[in-house]
Specification:
Low-specificity L-threonine aldolase; about 40% helix; Aspartate Aminotransferase, domain 2; EC 4.1.2.48; seven-stranded mixed β-sheet; L-allo-threonine aldolase activity
Length: about 350
């Protein structure tokens, strides 16, 4: 059976054009800073973000954790939203690698209340960990691909300046936010001291993320990349895939967003399922199964039997993600599978 695989946009595979770009990439030793294709990619990202420097890394987790490490000292505290990727999906790395603790705060659709963040900032007292960094996520994975409004980002930036705190943006899917809103990546990035971007999700590259910031910040980040074992040698093969992805697969994300909306609306009309359509802003759909009488893993298994793969995100929540390999016919098949499962509830 050929599956419609909606588990993640990380499932994307290089097409023939990307493979050709990888095969013909000019390479050197990136640890020495001598890989021309990596340097070209890093230069491209500095242009897109408006930052002074950038560093190619192996993964989004590495980009985020290097950034936390470069902004903090052991014993510091990092404020983030309670469903944030850096808190839930990065193996406890802030504590393990940077010696910092996370202060998770509740948000609505992934957006933190600025007044509540201000209340959470620690006083300068030796009894307390010291607040050093505010980390935001855009788009927000666990909230369903929601977009962090630029006006709220500006408010948080103003607060951070007031208390001399650093700001990091987990922008793994910032590509999606930019396409959905028309706001350039540079406009988002200028409010942060560092920003990470992922190439291996909706863009369709096989490997890689990048972090951008000031020259001083990237110099520190470079050291931590090495310490994490992340120094890559002839990495231009991977950087070529990222460059191809930006050129060929970025603007088409609007189609992923349109298809996610179609799928979300269809599922929301079925017995046993609820989709909060306010959260379907980009390419992720969260399906509440609590009215079905079955758990999310049980529903996921029933859908798999119908040829559709989704992921159980919580005991009563499923996640479906549209991406490069999901066309209109695949969406039709997914809707039909959900209908058949709904009829069995």
């Amino acid at each position: 059976m050929e599956f419609v695989d909606l588990r993640s946009d990380t499932l994307t595979r290089p097409d023939e054009g990307m493979r050709q770009a990888m095969a013909t990439a000019e390479v050197g030793d990136d640890v020495y800073g001598e890989d021309p294709t990596v340097n070209l990619l890093q230069g491209k990202i500095t242009e897109l973000t408006g930052k002074k420097a950038a560093l190619f890394v192996a993964s989004g987790t590495m980009a985020n954790q290097i950034s936390i490490n470069a902004h903090t000292q052991p014993g510091d505290e990092v404020i983030c939203e309670e469903r944030a990727h850096i808190f839930n999906y990065e193996s406890g790395s802030p504590a393990m690698l940077s010696g910092v603790q996370i202060r998770p705060l509740p948000g609505k659709y992934g957006v933190l209340n600025v007044e509540e963040v201000e209340e959470a900032i620690r006083l300068p007292d030796h009894h307390f960990p010291q607040t050093r960094l505010i980390a935001l996520e855009n788009t927000h994975n666990r909230w369903g691909g929601t977009i962090y409004p630029i006006e709220e980002i500006k408010k948080m930036h103003k607060l951070a300046k007031k208390y001399k705190l650093k700001m990091h943006l987990d922008g793994a899917r910032l590509w999606n936010a930019s396409i959905a809103t028309g706001i350039p990546i540079r406009e988002y990035a200028k409010h942060f001291d560092s920003v990470s971007l992922c190439f291996s999700k909706g863009l369709g590259a096989p490997v890689g993320s990048i972090v951008a910031g000031s020259e001083e910040f990237i110099d520190r980040a470079h050291r931590y990349r090495k310490a994490y074992g992340g120094g890559m040698r002839q990495a231009g093969i991977l950087a070529a895939a990222a460059l191809y992805a930006i050129e060929n697969n970025w603007q088409r994300m609007a189609e992923d967003h349109r298809r996610a909306r179609v799928l979300g609306e269809a599922i929301n009309n079925l017995h046993g399922f609820v989709v909060n359509l306010q959260t379907v802003q980009t390419n992720i759909i969260i399906v509440d199964t609590s009215l079905s009488g079955k758990t999310a893993p049980e529903i996921a298994q029933m859908l798999a039997e119908q040829g559709v793969k989704v992921i159980a995100f919580a005991p009563t929540r499923l996640r479906a993600v549209t991406h490069l390999h999901i066309d209109d016919a695949a969406i039709d098949r997914a809707i039909e599978a959900f209908k058949k499962v709904s009829q069995k509830l």
